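Blackboard transcription, Thursday session:
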Amino acid sequence: MQVELVSPERILYTGEADMVSCRTTDGDIAFLANHAPFVGALGVAPMRISSPEGTVSVAVHGGFVEVRDNRVIVLSDVAELAEQIDVERAREALERAEAELRTDPDDASAAAALARATVRLQVAG
Amino acid sequence: MAGGKERILKRRIKSVQSTKKITRAMELIAASRIVKAQARVHAARPYSEQITQVIANLAAGGAGGTSALLAPRPEIRTVAFVVLTADRGLCGAYNTSVIRAAERSIATHQAEGRQIFLVTVGRKAESYFRYREYHIDASFSGFTESPSYENAREVAQTVAQRFDDGEIDQVQLVSTRFLSAGSQSVVERTLMPLDPDSIGLPASSATTSAPAAAVAVAAPGAGEGGPAPSQAGYEFEPSPEEILDRLLPRYVEARMFAALLDAAASEHAARQRAMKAATDNADELIKSLSRVMNRARQDTITTEIMEIVSGAEALRQAGALVQDDLLVDRIISVDAFPSRI
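(Written on the board underneath:)
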């Protein structure tokens, strides 16, 4: 099964995989070979691309996934491979967002920042 | 004064030469940037191709024209113009041709009594329209040479927001399309509303903006939420309409991004051509100036010889009495003409 991770600026990742798991706005989903054609909107969540050589983790911040003819195409404005993530920065962002949420629990942008930072840290391990 | 003209010319040649060095350097820089910009245009293509593909699949899956982005407004009161130019000059007619095309189009829309919402990208457009006392509603600059997706999103959202609010009824994008390093052309495209044909959506369901029609089209396939098998065999999560609603703004951004990248590549190509012309021109100028300078120098020498010869001749006639005084032979020898001849 062919996997392509495409951002507006370039193709971030292409490769073979046995399984791709990700989270759509409705919930988690995994694709195996010969999955039925599928189009979904992605949430902010880690995505895992498993192949015999190992698992590649990607932080996906929204986007779309399309599956057809044994190809998984992920379109995302913001997606980072595990090795591209600046752990230090993500941790700082996490703390900042948490502090902001403590003062104002309804701060939407802080909540979004918190979600992004959490996913980044999850992916980076 | 003898030699004065020569000195002035020498100075001019020197200044042309240093200008030539600068234009030559700019030419080479622009040439290398074209390659880079083209590479970015290519790198951005998969995303826009895939997003178009997904939209086409959604259309096949029954998502119709419920999106406001797809329905042309019945009455167009305000037209937004997004004008893409460069931040800097020295690129031939690149900026002026875009600005002129935009201005002409703005004038026709104004003649039809429509309001104009002007968005400039690049310092050149901003200063042009500001000087002519147009009302500029938003301006962006500082990134035209190598735009990022973030920049494209910013510009797109400025107009998309107001389009959604109904403040703007149509968005026109005036920019330069990069065809090849040798040819670029100014184009005006409608960014919003989207043309259903161009993205493979059935035009009929989009133009009849009545939601009922769209629901009727979508009904056989899409259930409420959850994976829904469709005619094309696709499952959707969430419903096709919801995905389309999220996808279309991205599509507008991707188009804006593509336009910005194209404009950047065109800018570098235009600059390379302008700077090459300037360098060639400097070469020519140096050649003709040196010719004039050489002639001036030769003139001075000739005049000097004439003066000395006639002076000596006069002396000889006057000094015929004192024969051993100034001998012509001695004067015309080495001292009188040091190394010049």
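Lecturer's comment: Confidence is low (pLDDT under 50) at residues 204-231 of chain B.
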